[in-house]
Specification:
alpha/beta, Ribose transport system substrate-binding protein, 12 strands, 6-stranded mixed sheet, 6-stranded parallel sheet, Rossmann fold, carbohydrate binding
Length: 314
Amino acid sequence: MRRLATVLMASALAFAGASAASAGEIAVIVKTVNSTFWQNVQKGAEAAIGSAKGEHTMTFQGPAAESAIADEVNMVENAVNRKVAAILLAPSDPDALVPAVKKAWEARIPVVIIDSQLSEGSDKYYQSFLATDNRKAGELAAKALIEKVGTTGKIAVMSYVAGAGSEIGRVGGFTDYIKANSKLEVVGPYYSQSQMATALNQTTDVLAANSDLKGIFGANEPTAIGMGRAIKQAGKAGKVVAIGFDGNQDLQEFVKDGTLTATVVQGSYQMGEKGIETLLSILGKQKVEKTVDTGVVVVTKDNIDKPEAKNVLY
């Protein structure tokens, strides 16, 4: 009897999945749900679905951590298996997600990629890529740092997940600009795996080992928060020039109290909103741009209360 009940339950779940698909489910799958950055992407996506007032519904999911790449791959494959209408994906790894995105393409399910690029040669499997120009963003962070520390001395780079598409562009853009425009010695990069506590410990160690450090860059939200907390705990706020990345409440407070000289903020809300709008256009058989730059703003104490900053802070 128990076995029959299990079979019936499985059948009911399969039927529910089929119903969701026919209702036009758009699956939004991000790198992790445990970050206000991705929660802000969710807000933008929900606003776009709400504005559409159409037949499409939206689901939102992501692994517990950005480093749980296999979990994200499974989420994409499950979305393909339940025959969703479309997928909005922020891939945590440029290579590992390609086979799953290819399965979506083979199933004729449109995919829009946000935030981080997939590896070269996979562009035929997705319809559009919306993201920060991470290389340009990294260059802006480097420029802001040079303006404060000058062109000589020692700086550190606190990064997140090695090999992530956004990390390659962002940290690459930063270090290349530093090398081309200064004689600054770069310590690192150190990889936090997007874990705030790891970034805090790494930054504490870097500050202790480099008493002559003039500047430091934290390359994503959890890393920059950990970096900021370590700087405050070490009594180095205002003594080491620190540039963060992203714009949640913690980072805004660090800018206001001088722990961070600036933070480079992406349009996370815009990624979710424009991502869904792009998929709705594709589902409506309209042409879309293959690449869309969602922009960044360098937020400092001088502009943090101005509209240009308020539009991207979260």
